[in-house]
Each structure stands twice: as structure tokens, then as C-alpha cells.
Amino acid sequence: MSDTRATAEPTEPTEPTEPTETTGITEPTEITEPAEPAEPTGTVTAPTAAPHSPSAPGRWSGKVSPRGRRAATLAAGVLVLLALPFYVSSFWLQTGLFAMAAVIGAIGLNLLSGTTGQLSLGHAFFLAVGAYGYVWLASEPSGTGTGSGSRYGLGLPPVLAFVLAIVLAGAAGGLFSPISGRLRGMYLGIATLALVFLGHHMMLNAPQVTGGFNGRSVPPLDILGFSFTDTSPDGLTVIGVPFGGLERLWYVGLALVAVAWLAARNLLRGRPGRALGAVRDSEVAAAVMGVHLTRYRASAFIISSMYAGAAGALLALVFKRVVPDHFGLLLSIDYLAMIVIGGLGSVGGAACGAVFVALIPHLLTKYADDLPLLTAPGTAGSGVSPGDAARYLYGTAIVLVLIFAPGGLAGLARRRPRGKGDDSPRTRRFPLRNRTTPKEHTP
After folding, report:
1. Tally of CB atoms within 10 A around 269
2. Cis ω before 233 (30° cut-off from 0)
3. DSSP 314-372
4. Cα four-point dihedral sign 80, 82, 84, 90
5. For residue 238, what are the β-bridge partners?
6. Do 119 and 333 meet the contact criterion of CB atoms below 8 Å apart?
7. Which of 116, 220, 243, 255 allows an S-S link to 247, with CB 3.0 to 4.6 Å?
8. Using CA atoms, how far apart are residues 54 and 436, in angstroms rounded to an integer?
9. Of the segments 123-132, 227-236, 377-386, which one has the largest average pLDDT value?
10. Average pLDDT along the chain
């Protein structure tokens, strides 16, 4: 005998009907009232969202998003950099400042060569313009007449001189921009290479401005009476740690790196950055899309020159004396090594490559006595000098990068390990092979 049960959906009240015969036993059908849906006995209904599922509202999944991990890593790195002057010696602070200057210059060169695709071998010339420009603008004139002992200078406030040195480097790039806007590839590289030799000749033969072969001392940076040297104020201590010139310059370098980083990232993410990338990928396609090729190529050269000017001015403050031999062809090659090792077109990659290339010579010089096949500077021996050994390492790193990681350090960082069951399009080798088609609905 079977009873008639209430269905899951509410039904309208029905009038009494004649008895219904089922299995020989007749029962009248009663008026049914709307009832709650009944669950089948012995079945378990799965919850709509698991307790730890990311789709469950108001529940924490226990996982951190990639953006959150990057933000946490960046915050930890910034805190470490801010705390370093309290724990490390002057050698590491000076080496870090050299690396910061290299980061700024490498970001500028990467905007030119990595993003826009313009080969430049004259980056050292614009670093020299920034360094000597700051010295000339901030120094007081000395001597009389035009003798070899006289030195020209405008005596401007150091902060203003620093800014104007960056503008002066950009103006030098603007003078060269008509050439850079029309030359391509190797021809542009040879033209920029001529700038290095021309600049070296001018630095040696303009002693009133550059000091000639012996160079010229660099005026210290001063902001409203606060000098970034060991004096003014003398005996400055922070949490019991003496803060001299290097400790004070450390935070200036961090601020410059942050500004250079943010400016480059915003430039690349905006319309100008997309236009520069289009120029690099295909000039014909860029012109069809309305990109003014000559204007954008010239603008990239000017911006790169300004970055180089800022790096050169910071180098001058760290060196405390600039000489022409600092800004030779080898410096330009070092900067090319930075962006190739770090990754062309990547701001973070350029920074990592710059740190690698800038730190290696100083580390080899410091530990030359403890490393085999190396000869410490100023000592006689048959080993390799730290500078030459560093360039051997650069060359090896470039070859390995070009063979195994064409994207540089930035490309390696973007690679995600392929986890078990990871079916995202970014990690799947054949994202369309296993795609299933939805079944058709049949009434």
C-alpha cells in the first residue's frame, strides 16, 4: 500500500475527488496544504560552499594572494634597507650607494634600449654630464683669469644644482635626439659611442670646468643648513649610532631610487609606455596606430639621459671627487650588462642586474686576498685583478642568460612552478586541448 505524499513544491488547494483506485484499496484524496520540501531519507546534502573555500562569503580561505605576497615582500625589503645604516659598516654603505646610482642609471637605459629598442653605448657620457654639471653648478669659482689653476662655478644651492644637473643631462640628450630619432640599430650604437670619446676629450681639455686629468672635488649636498657630510651638525647620533656622511646620503639614495622606480613604472603602464613598446616591436605597426616615431624615439632618449644625469650626480656625491677616467667606455658596457642580465624592458629586472653588476667588483676587491687567482689592487702578482675578474663574470652571466633565460632575471622571477593540479592558462602547456564543451539542455 502506498500513500500519497506532499510534493516539494507547494500546490494549490484541490476540491475533493472521487476515490482513486491504486492496488485494490481505495482512499479519498484529501486537500493538501503547502509544505516544506522534504529531504530524502539517508541522503546528505553538500553545503553550497566549503568552510575554507574562497567563494564562501565572510570566510578566510587561509591563502595569501600573489599581490599580498608581493606587498609583504616589498614592505620587508624597505624596512631592511631603512635599518641597514644602523648595523653595517661604512664599506657596505658606500657599496650600497654605488649600487643605488647604478639602479637609477640602469632603469633609464632600460627605458631606452629595453622598452624602445634603441641601442646606446654612450650612457657613460650622460652620467659624466650629470656629475660634472652638479660640480660646476654647486662650486664656488676659484682662481683668477683663465690659468690652469682657476675653476669656474656658479655657486648655486646644492639641491638646486642637483636638479639642474639632471635637467642639463636631459638637455644634452635633447641635442642628440634628432640623431637618435633617425638612426637605427648598430648605426645609433656607433653614434652614441662617439659621445663617449668626445666627452672624454672635453673633460681632459676643459680644466676650468672639469679640473682636467686630476678631476675636481665635489661640493657636499646641503639642505637648509643640514649637510650630508660628517659635519653640520657635528656628532649627530640616532639611537646611539653615529650618523656621518654615508649614513645621511643613504636615505637620499633610497629616495632617488624610489622616485626613479615609480616614475618608470607609471610611464610604462600609461599610454607613452605602450607607444614606446609599439615602436620597439614594429615601427610600421606603430606608425599605422598613430604613434609619432621620431618624437617618441627622441623623448625616450631625453628621459634616459635625465636618469643618467641623476645617477651621475649621486655618484659624484659618493666619490667626493670626479675624474674623467670614471666615465669611459667600460662604464657604458657595464650598464649594458646590467639590463641584459636583469631583463630587457623590466624595471625590476634592470634594478636587480644593476645591483649584481655594481656589487661584484667591490666584493672581489674586498676579499681578493682570500680568493684564489685574484690579486689585490696595488700588489704585485700574476693573478687577475678584481676589475677584470668582475668583467669575466659579467660575460659569463650574459652568455648563460642569453642561452637559458632570454628574459633575464626578471623572466626567471615571472616563472611559476607548475604545481600538481594547477590548470591555470598561465601554467598549462596546452590550454585548449582539454577544454570540454557544455552539454546541451534537453527538455
Report:
1. 10
2. yes
3. HHHHHHSEE-GGGGSHHHHHHHHHHHHHH-TT-HHHHHHHHHHHHHHHHHHHHTTTTST
4. positive
5. 241
6. no
7. 243
8. 24
9. 123-132
10. 80
Q: What is the pLDDT of residues 432-441, one digit of tens each?
A: 444 444 545 5
3-state DSSP assignment of residue 241: strand
Could you tell me which residues are beta bridge partners of residue 27? 20
pTM: 0.79
Do 157 and 222 contact (CB within 8 A), yes or no? yes
Which residue in 129, 297, 286, 276 sits closest to 202, CA to CA?
129
Q: How far is CA 353 from CA 103, 234, 330, 385, 399, in A?
A: 8, 37, 16, 22, 14
Sign of CA dihedral 317, 318, 320, 326: negative
Cα angle 234, 238, 241 (rounded to 5 degrees) comes to: 85
- Kindly state the cell numbers that stand for 259: 622616485
Question: C-alpha grid cell for residue 247?
Answer: 649614513
β-pair partners for 223: 226
Return the residue matching grid coordinates 675636481: 216
What is the pairing mode between strands 237-238 and 222-223?
Answer: unpaired
Per-residue pLDDT tens for 277-309? 998 888 888 888 888 888 899 899 999 999 999
Which residues have CB under 8 Å from 437's CB, separation 6+?
Answer: none
Q: Measured between alpha carbons, how far is 96 from 87 in angstroms, rounded to an integer?
A: 13
Q: Which residues contact 377 (CB under 8 A, 6 or more apart)?
A: 365, 368, 385, 386
Residue written as cell 629616495?
Answer: 255
Q: For strands 222-223 and 226-227, give the pairing.
A: antiparallel
Backbone angles phi, psi at 381, to 5 degrees: 175, 170
In three-state secondary structure terms, 280 is helix
Q: Could you read off the pLDDT of 128-137 as tens digits, one per residue?
A: 999 999 999 9
Distance (Å, rounded) from C-alpha 70 to C-alpha 64?
10
- DSSP secondary structure of 283-306: HHHHHHTT--HHHHHHHHHHHHHH
